[in-house]
Design goal:
With 124 residues, the chain is mostly helical. The chain folds into two domains: 3-90, Multidrug-efflux Transporter Regulator, Chain: A, Domain 2, CATH 1.10.1660; 92-124, no CATH class. The protein has helices at residues 3-8, 14-21, 25-33, 51-65, 70-89, 93-109, 115-120, and strands at 12-13, 40-41, 47-49. The protein is globular, with a radius of gyration of 18 Å. Keywords: DNA-binding, Repressor, Transcription, Transcription regulation.
C-alpha cells in the first residue's frame, strides 16, 4: 500500500484529532464549514479524519497563530489544491498505465478487487 493511500485513510475520530491538534471540536467544524478539511463520514454520520486532514488542521492553526486571516488561508489552500489537480491532470498515458498496473498488482496481492478495476470492467 502506498504512503499516500495510507495517509489519506480516514482512521482518526474527532476526539483523537482534538488531542493531536489541540483544537476544539468547534474549531475543527468551523474549518470543515470553510471547506479546508473534508473528513469522511461513517454510516452513523461520525467524522473520521485522515493523517492528511490532521496535517491541514495543523497548518491552518499555524497560519492563524502567525496572524493570517481566514480569507487569506482559504486563498492559499485554493491555490494549492488547483496546483495539485493540475499536476494530476498532467499524467501521461504511460504514467497512468503504470499507476493502474501497480494498483491492480497490490489488489491481487491483498486478494481484493481494485476500485478502479470495477470502474474499468465496463469497458472490457
Amino acid at each position: 500500500m502506498s504512503r499516500e493511500i495510507r495517509r489519506s485513510m480516514p482512521l482518526l475520530s474527532m476526539n483523537i484529532v482534538m488531542q493531536l491538534t489541540e483544537l476544539s471540536a468547534r474549531q475543527i467544524r468551523y474549518y470543515e464549514e470553510h471547506q479546508l478539511v473534508e473528513p469522511h463520514r461513517t454510516e452513523g454520520n461520525r467524522r473520521m479524519f485522515s493523517l492528511n486532514d490532521v496535517d491541514i488542521l495543523l497548518e491552518v492553526k499555524d497560519y492563524l497563530e502567525q496572524g493570517m486571516k481566514m480569507a487569506k488561508i482559504k486563498q492559499l489552500f485554493a491555490k494549492k489544491n488547483a496546483a495539485t489537480s493540475k499536476k494530476a491532470q498532467d499524467l501521461s498515458d504511460s504514467e497512468l498505465r503504470r499507476v493502474m498496473r501497480e494498483e491492480m498488482r497490490q489488489a491481487q496481492r491483498l486478494k481484493k478487487s481494485s476500485i478502479r478495476q470495477g470502474d474499468l470492467s465496463r469497458f472490457y
